[in-house]
Amino acid sequence: MVQGRSYSNLIAHIALWFGIGIVAFPVYLTLVASTHEASAIANGNMPLWFGDNFLINYYKTLFVGSSKSTRTLVSTMMLNSLVMALTIAIGKIAISIISAYAVVYFRFPFRMGFFWLIFVTLMLPVEVRIFPTYKIVADLGLLDSYAGLTIPLIASATATLLFRQFFLTIPDELVEASKIDGAGPLRFFWDTVVPLSRTNMAALFVILFIYGWNQYLWPLLITTSGDMQTIVIGIKKMITITDALTEWDVVMTTTMLAMIPPVAVVILMQHWFVKGLVDTEK
Amino acid sequence: MSTRRFFLGAAASLALLAGTVPAQAQIEIHWWHALTGANNDVVVKLSNDFNASQKEYKVVPSYKGSYPDTMNAGIAAFRAGQSPHILQVFEVGTATMMGAKGAIKPVFDVMKESGEKFDPSAYLPAVAGYYSTSKGEMLSMPFNSSTAIMWYNKDAFKKANLDPEKPPKTWPEVFDYAKKLKAAGYSTCGVSNAWGTWLLLEQFSAWHNLPIATKANGMDGFDTELRINSPTHVRLLTDLVALQKDKTYDYSGRTNNGEGRFTSGECPIFMTSSGFFGNVKANAKFDFGMSTLPYYPDVAGAPQNSIIGGASLWVMGGKKAEEYKGVAKFFTFLSDTDRQAWLHKESGYLPITKAAYEKVQAEGFYKANPGRDVPVIQMAGKPPTDNSRGLRLGSLVQIRDMWSEELEAAFAGTKSPKDALDAAVARGNAALRQFERTVTR
Amino acid sequence: MEKRAIYSHKLLPYLLLLPQMIVVIVFFYFPASQAVYQSFLLEDAFGLHSEFVWFENFQHVLSDPDYWLSFVVTAIFSVSVAGLSLSLALFFAVMADGQIRGANAYKTLMIWPYAVAPAVAGVLWLFMFQPSLGILAQIIRDRFGVDWNPLLNSTHAMLLVIMASTWKQISYNFLFFLAGLQSIPRSVIEAAAIDGASATRRFWTIIFPLLSPTAFFLLVVNVTYVFFDTFGIIDTMTGGGPSQATSTLVYKVYNDGRAGSNLGGSAAQSVILMIIVVGLTAIQFKYVERKVHY
Q1: Which runs of consecutive H residues, i.e. helices, occur in B54-101?
Q2: Would you give the distance in Å from CA A224 to the centre of its chain?
């Protein structure tokens, strides 16, 4: 927006702090909880400010605690989560952008039919069709593998829809200019469409990365070997609802540690946002 | 090269080869379970100890999520032809597992076919009975069993001028104590419980020798019908609903999320699983005691015995004979007296064999840790009747949800206790009839 | 909605669509058709016995009063969550888009809470709002005198679930609105400012229309999200209770099918749900998209 008067800036600041308050409060609580001892958390007497157990808790989690409960090293689990999240994010963006391109920029029989076929995949989340999907993955021999973890989750249509929306806003003059230059559709795609899609790709990357990172039910079903466990399964495993004791301090610290890669992704993508802004001066 | 050297060389190579040919490959037994935290440690230790004690078999445990998730995983795996050998299923899923004749292999079969010595009478009837047919044939191996008991805050009792060594035994006494505690400052909760339906319907019925359902609570047939709307059941709910109004009694939810209300000191009397022990010991900053569940003294036959909760180990079908041998050996290993004694003392789960219980008693453990024997006595004090051996209802997960909804309606005041329980019976029966159709073909 | 400038290649579009179509057919349509087939069966958990029962499962479902209740619950839920999270996110995105100091910091802080896993987020929210132990619950009780009890009071339970779901969505929507805002050429906005248009007018006549493709995308995704992806939160926080007050259509589907208890009924419900959502989206495309400017 154009530089406004200072009081509208003040409003903006206040509004944003309010927003951050709402959005970040639970995370703040997690951070605070990770510095207290377990009984303080479990009894509901946890104060709102940091406690004294910061070093003890993180030490315990990294070197003692988590491997005691989850049997797999935190580092292995983070790696699995990383591979899964990256593959899903990149895979989904890649296949969706070309599908959206096909649907928008070409005329061919059943064009809208294809779009609808893809679009309908938004309508039935994995959890509801879990048994048959599991069977297919098992039949293909993909249990306990990165492929089995990621490919079925690439199926849904969010990214295709977004790209389609975006492509429809690209001015036709650009296409015509590119045609005059003698460029074919693939050239146009690489030289013009992809760069223009940067901000959208960045946003999608964040969302999809976190979607892949936070998966619980699917990896739980597909993987049995300890080496394939993801960090979210590790955390969930520590939050027990049966009789035993939940080590809340370890849970909270692991959660904080587990947030580092997604947060890093967000911060990195921020950079791209800004860059995208500068480049899309049309 | 001379002929002699050649033969020597050949002989040496052969010898080397023979030495490197591996012995018969270890058979892996896959065990899927739902245990976390310290209980997970127990599972791993048991597996490691078994693996170290012999070379033929290797038990490989895997955590598959919460109880419903683990059961889900087991079912999905079976449908895809990928099931594990041993699946830990919570007691609520027993009927579903039992009704699946090709999917599971009964434990007594596994033991018999593998030639392992197996004496059903060595197991505590209250524990083993839940998982056996009415003829005493054990279908699944009890593993982590607990029962419901009453926990109370001794410091709170002192504050209200109640004798901390004299916990209330009957419901009228509990209500009386709760009122006094409330007056002494525990204003938001005098008495409460976790696992709403387990405590207030299932355990309540068994403890008062009342049927939960016909056909020995479903153990004798799938054409069972619910009976949880008897006058005594309505009486309990009416009493509790009246006390809910001023929070002398306060509902704490369907599962055990509310257990923190006891350890935080908010609710001075709290009924939940005996497995809560570890939690209480670590988190309660007050003197606490354990006692038996309360009963109505004017109901004939009360107190009878309480039912077990927890989970058991089912053996999945479709595996090879030599793999079943390994499973059988593992079960023998688990039932070993010393091992059971250790398990019981360590984890708070109940011992499954008589010998283990007697051993722990002989060691003076209960004397040194008063209250730890409450669950065993409560469960095994009297021989179980048809009403208190356990229950076996299909779709119990769904049915418990229905019962919870009706209880909640009563507590919120939107339905009378009688209407709520009648609805609970009607809805539950409908689900039972549907389950019956899928099984008896 | 139709582009004038297109390419006339015959084979290329099919090749471009191929990867997605393969994945979609193998991992979506094939299992989905099995799920649909299941809606016509009455079977046990392990699939050992099954009986073909035509539309009996559907009949059963449609005559269940609890099913109709979940319609109402879902409607209230989706309107509240979508409405709240979209408007709040838009508001914050507009604020953050400006040239105020620390804009980048604000953006980061607004987005990264999305990184908290839903499993943990659900537990945290439960913690904060637990009737007696929760920090926020205590504030509500002490400061406002309200007997906060989502275990027994359906309105409280509904509020709790709406808050948790909206919270999760705000970050998501914020992210996309921001991306959309930042791809609006600065020159257009400046031209309007030079013309003397006030900030509010600028917003409604220029920015919002240019943002409408993104807004439309988010509307579709939000409705779908509320219909489908919220059951994790509901499961952790209220279990659909008290007395079904927070049981949405999809929660019923997931719960009824759990541990193989009622696969046929659950599948029938999914089929009905799919039809509804496809219908809703078709309507959105037909009527709302007309207003979208490309």
Answers
A1: 67-79, 94-98
A2: 23
B378 in Cβ contact with B362 (< 8 Å): no
Chain C residues lying within 8 Å of B406, measured CB to CB: 243
Q: Which of C16, C220, C263 sits opposite A102 (nearest CB)?
A: C16
The A residues from 4 to 43 touching C (CB cutoff 8 Å) are 4, 8-9, 11-13, 15-16, 19-20, 22-24, 26-27, 29-30, 43
The single residue listed with the structure tokens 């790209």 is: A163
Residue C123 has pLDDT above 80, yes or no: no
Query: Could you tell me if residue A244 is left (phi over 0), alpha (psi between -120 and 50 degrees) or otherwise beta?
Result: beta
Inter-chain touch C260–B72, beta carbons under 8 Å: yes
- The pLDDT of residue C260: 61
ipTM of the complex: 0.76
B409 Cβ under 8 Å from any chain C Cβ: yes
Neighbours of chain C (3+ CB pairs under 8 A): A, B
Q: Is C100 on the interface with B (CB under 8 A)?
A: no
Q: pLDDT tens digit string along C12-65?
A: 888 888 989 998 899 888 888 887 888 888 887 777 777 888 888 888 888 888
User: Contact B374/B366 with Cβ under 8 angstroms?
Assistant: no
Q: Position C198: which residue type?
A: S
**Domains of chain C and CATH, by start:** 53-114+170-291 (1.10.3720.10)
Which regions in chain B score pLDDT beneath 70? 1-24, 37-38, 440-441
DSSP assignment letter at B170 = B
Give the burial class of B301: count Cβ atoms within 10 A of its Cβ; 0-12 exposed, 13-18 middle, 19 or more buried: middle
Q: Do C216 and A175 count as a contact with CB atoms less than 8 A apart?
A: no
Pairing of strands B141-153, B269-273: antiparallel
Looking at beta carbons, which residues of chain C come within 8 Å of B189? 132
* pLDDT at B120 (0 to 100): 82
What pLDDT is recorded for position B2? 53
From CA C236, how far away is CA C125, in angstroms rounded? Answer: 10
Mutation site, A235, A242, A246, A254, interface B, largest B CB count within 10 A: A242
**Helix A111-119 × helix C12-24 angle, to 10°:** 30
pLDDT in tens, C165-200: 888 788 888 878 887 887 777 777 778 778 777 777
Domains by residue range for chain B, with CATH:
27-145+308-380 (3.40.190.10), 150-307+385-439 (3.40.190.10)
User: In the structure encoding, which two tokens stand for residue B297, read together?
Assistant: 């003294």
Look at residue A282 in the predicted model and tell me its pLDDT.
32
Closest CA to B70 of C250, A82, A135, A236: A236
Q: What is the dihedral of CA B348, B351, B357, B362, to 10 degrees?
A: -40
Q: Helices in C203-248 by DSSP H: which ranges? A: 208-228, 231-237
B438:C49 CB<8 A: yes
- Type of residue found at C149: N
Which chain B residue has the Cα nearest residue C261?
B395
Assign A59 a pLDDT band (cuts: 50, 70, 90): low
Task: Tell me the three state secondary structure of residue B208.
Answer: coil
Q: Which domains does chain A have, with CATH numbers?
A: 34-279 (1.10.3720.10)
Residue (of C229, C203, C197, C202) closest to C215 by Cα position: C203
pLDDT at B14: 52
Does residue B268 sit in helix, strand or coil?
A: coil
Give dist(CA A262, CA B326) in Å, integer.
Answer: 44
Q: Name the residue of chain A whose CA is nearest to B71's CA.
A: A221
Q: Which residue has the tokens 């490989």?
A: B60
